[in-house]
Amino acid sequence: MDCPVKFTVHYLIRFPDFKIEEDKQSAKDKVSKALKEALAKDPSAVKAVWEYRTRFPAMDDHRNHPTVGMVAELSQPVDDRIRQQVEKITEGGAKTVSEVKHHLSTFITNELFRGETPPPTTQRKYYPTDRDLWNIMAKVNDSTRNSSQDQANLQILSTRWARQEDCKVKFRPSEVLEDGTKTNVLFCYQTAWQQRLLLLYGQQMCLLDATYRTCRYDLPLFFLCVRTNVCYTVVGVFVPHTERTVDIREALQVFKDWNPEWNPSHFMVDFCEAEIGALEEEFQDAKVLLCDFHREKAWVEWVRKREHGVSHVQATVLNLLRDIAAAGTTEEYERCLSLLRESEVWKENERLLAWFSNKWLKCTKRWVQAFKDEDLKVAIYTNNGVERQNETLKYSHLDGRKRRSLTEMITVVVTDFLATAYRKYIQLNVAYSSCYRKYHTDLPTYLKDRPRGVVLHIMARLQEAQSYEQDDIVSIGPGIFQVKSSSKRSQQHTVNFGATSTNMPSCTCRDWLKHKLPCKHFCSVFNLQQEWGWEKLSAVYRDNPLFSLDSTLLSSSSSTCTSSETDDSSSPSLTSTADPPPPSPTPSPAVHGELPVSKPKRSKQLQRECASLLKEMTNITYNLQDELYLTSMKEQLSCLLEEMVGHSAHDGTFRVRSPQKRKRKMTDSHALPTLPPKHPYSKRVGHHADMMKSAFWVDVSLDDNMEKEQELETTVVADIEEELETTVVADIEDAETTEKDEEEWLKINNIQLTEEDRKLLQQDEWLNDKHMNCSQGLIKKEYPCIDGLRDTVVLQAGQQQDPIPAPNDCIQIHSIGQHWVVSTTVGGGTGVTVFDSLSPSMNAELRKQLATMYGSFAEGQDGVIPVTVKCVQKQNGSNDCGLFAVANAAALAEEIDPSTVQFNQTQMRQHLENCLATESISMFPHSQRNAPDNNIKETSYQLTIYCICNLYKPGQMISCDRCDGWYHCACVKLSNSDVADIVANNREYVCLKCSGLSCGL
């Protein structure tokens, strides 16, 4: 900078004990002589002080550069203490600049300037720039590398890992040999615990899938995965040179050599010819199946393309194809295939014929239900479990970075990702055991020490089976029963326990075909045929490791569990393969007697049976030709109708749908008459306004206790109750017409989605509560440990519900007027985060729902709930808020921060339709955000569990003497004089809720 200022530093050593008293030469010589003698005698006894002295020039002497201000602060070098801390953080595993900056800010505040005011962030000395931090981090990383070549580093690590006793590693670098040939890279890795889980769970079904863009090289990363008793787990990792059949087969051969006892009967993959070919060549006795989710996705994408000529009839084509895929028998498959070939769209469109014949009909054994279920003992129809592992690796462990070296990526997989996966497996097995927590006394003995998913499934079917009676079950052979259908009493299902230890049990109902777990027909036999319980199921099925907890993990505490759980002494061992002793002739009430459910009323059962008879009579009526008999039957039905009217509930001369309600208790104070609220879309026009006028403020039934498989009978009964003025035949005809208009698309968790709901999803319309609740049900199914996911209608209606326990991870979708958002506690911290796809705002409706859901998260005596509302990606248009709510909820369930991904809005509707059709949720189409997005907006709120406003704010509050609720005086419109009068006269204060009045905020 050509600044003329120079600094001169003087280095001095001062001896305080040897002072010169006078400024004379003789005095100086005398002290100097004494000092030399002291140093010669004992230098350590001489006290010395080292000093540096300089003279700073005046600020005005500097030229050509600033000396004060922001520019001067930015030109300072990084402080050595800051540099050392950055090096320490990098060595501790930090990989991104943002992560280092976060730790560095804490260090400056809590350590470097503890108790002091930190310097301004413009000082580069203490707050280095991103480039400064990156250079320091790069220097640390370069110093830890063994070589500048990536493959050489991986070779060193592989050799180090191979020395471990519990680890198998094979690494072959890609290089050119002396004879000119080139070897392809291959890396295979498997630990001892992975080998054990592969042999334990991988003999029936293994899943294989590849993921890309995990490092800077174009190399696929393959996960060999199995479904364990509690989750999906990776049991093998390999990186081949390409995704060709020869490279994949070579890696599979390595794992086959490492595990000579591994002989799986089934594999599941995407429709990848290379993977299928490699598996069939290496495992010739195994059957390779296709994932239902990817099959459905491929079909939808093909029929939607206009160039294929079927986009205008895509619903018809998809229904025909889905019927083929869902065929449960060979006869049904042939019938559905004939319907496709006889259809007009098949005959008129050669592209459809060629595509489906050449690609799909050649491999029906891989995707048709009837052929897939042959010898299949586990219900695995999608490989979404492997995809969840891929997503977890990319966004929770690799932090979304795609430019890592191969060594860095493999190191993260080996040291972090696999260790976390095994820890999760251990934690879930221990948490579900009786050694961890005592089971409820009403739980049947055979369900103790079972995985949570199995217990919840069977308990739900046991509850449904309570409606069955002894006459509904008929034994037709050893271990074979005919059980009446609960919806169609003329239909029966065959339940087979498996005659020998090698036969699989079975039931002819859809529930068994889908889950391969005891259905309500099995459970009805468990309840009513005491000699035929869980222990009578075939041993090849009963001893499936998927139905038991891992005894290897629990063996250390088995003796303690045995002594504490004395009531389980009669239950079969979790690892025993021998048949248990025969049960006692006296039924055990602890096993089947007192389930914590209420038995349905007999009247409900009779209603269903009568409705079924009426339906059958209606069908026969249209085949009658005898006019005399029809006239006689009409008179009989008219008499029967009058008799039914006499037995139905009435209110005066009008029929009612339910018994007369009790009279409402009136209070002394009466609410003033008010005008009905203005409809928010009353003066708007357009397609969206028309939809909202019909969908906004509609009355929705909250009855969630409807029985399964009785939609038709329920419709008939409802019609008979409502239209007694007409004949029974006319009622049932109306019911059939209504059913055609509301044709069922699919049914998830007792929620029926119609074709109209499907059109809303396909035609860019606003999603309704059925879409949301079905999506939440799929998330709950995939992630049973996540709390929340409650019915959005019930939550919005404000019905009394228990709050979510504070330590639990929770995800919940909220309906706030004409908008959908999602709230969560996933991600740590004590507060609640709301993701909104429009703006980071909060209205009174959302405040009320959050206070209801997260009341147990309140802090301090003021009951404060910290809430942060984020708008991480703003939606285009006004109708896709529901899609973003479901997409954010799915990402949170995968433990992926929505602020780190960018969803592809144009593909979200198709993806949600595929998820609903296959009843399996997965991450929505997205891309990774490489850097922090400055467009993310967020707002913080302080909510509280008190007052009608649910906002924490200073001010005088008053307590209701009836409900003990606290309210801001301003919110309940009490002035200071009113409060003083209540206190002075010791009068009772009753809040608006208890007095029956309402107050608007």
Task: List the SSEs and their pairings.
Blueprint: E1 9-14, H1 25-41, E2 49-54, H2 70-74, H3 80-91, H4 97-112, H5 130-144, H6 150-162, E3 167-172, E4 175-176, E5 182-183, E6 186-191, H7 192-201, E7 205-211, E8 221-227, E9 232-239, H8 245-258, E10 266-269, H9 273-282, E11 287-290, H10 292-304, H11 314-325, H12 330-342, H13 344-348, H14 350-360, H15 369-372, H16 384-397, H17 406-431, H18 452-464, E12 473-477, E13 480-484, E14 492-496, E15 506-507, H19 510-515, H20 520-528, H21 539-542, H22 551-554, H23 558-564, H24 589-593, H25 602-621, H26 627-647, E16 650-651, E17 654-655, H27 687-695, H28 711-722, H29 728-741, E18 744-748, E19 751-754, H30 755-762, H31 769-782, E20 787-788, H32 792-797, E21 810-815, E22 820-824, E23 832-835, H33 844-853, E24 864-871, H34 881-893, E25 901-903, H35 908-918, E26 926-928, E27 937-944, E28 957-959, E29 966-968, H36 976-984, H37 992-995
Parallel strand pairs: 7-10, 10-11, 20-21, 23-24
Antiparallel strand pairs: 1-2, 3-6, 4-5, 6-9, 7-8, 8-9, 12-13, 13-14, 14-15, 16-17, 18-19, 21-22, 22-23, 24-27, 25-26, 28-29
Give descriptors for this structure.
single chain, 1001 residues, alpha+beta, Nucleotidyltransferase, domain 5, 8 domains, seven-stranded mixed sheet, six-stranded mixed sheet, 37 helices, 29 strands, 41% helix, globular, Znf_SWIM, zinc, DNA-binding transcription factor activity
